[in-house]
Amino acid sequence: MVRSSNGHKIRTVSHSYAMPSVIRLNRYVHAPYKGVTLTRQNVFKRDNSECQYCGTRRDLTLDHVIPSSRGGAHSWQNLVTACKKCNAKKGNYTPEEAGMQLKRKPFKPSYALFLRDITGSNHNEWDDFLEAKSA
């Protein structure tokens, strides 16, 4: 199954074809797993480049929800984007201990959703083929 992309065409010397936006295979084709690499920039992208405590987009850094000095892992589920002010306020405490609330629970994004979300464009024709957006 092929779903075309807004009337765009791919042209050869003698033919013109609708440019696909989605190509659905009728049988599985093994492809190596492409996970989302845990990097500072990818955490920022997942969190929409905003502090997960106050919502600002300025002076951003990473925060370990459970501080690494208290056994918190360097993982998708324990890292969030935080501004320097909130990170300093939270210090060596958990958000609950510091009286701060996360805007959303940190999660590991799927490869397909991560690609869709970071492109900045919403391809509605993909919705039938991708899993539901994570909260």
Description:
The structure is a single chain. By secondary structure, the chain is an alpha+beta fold. The two termini are 29 Å apart. It has a two-stranded antiparallel ribbon. 19% of the residues lie in helices and 21% in strands. It is elongated and about 65 Å long.
Low-confidence stretches: none
Oligomer: single chain
Strand content of the residues, in percent? Answer: 15-25%
The average pLDDT is 85
Q: Please work out how many helical segments DSSP would assign.
A: 4
CATH class of the domain at 40-98: Mainly Alpha
Strand/helix succession? EEHEEHHH
Walk across the major sheet and give the strand order.
1-2
How far apart lie the N and C ends? 29 Å
Helicity level: 10-25%
Large-scale geometry: elongated
Count every beta strand, where a strand is a DSSP E run of 2 or more residues: 4
Q: Name the structural class.
A: alpha+beta
Q: What is CATH's topology name of the domain at 40-98?
A: DNA Binding (I), subunit A
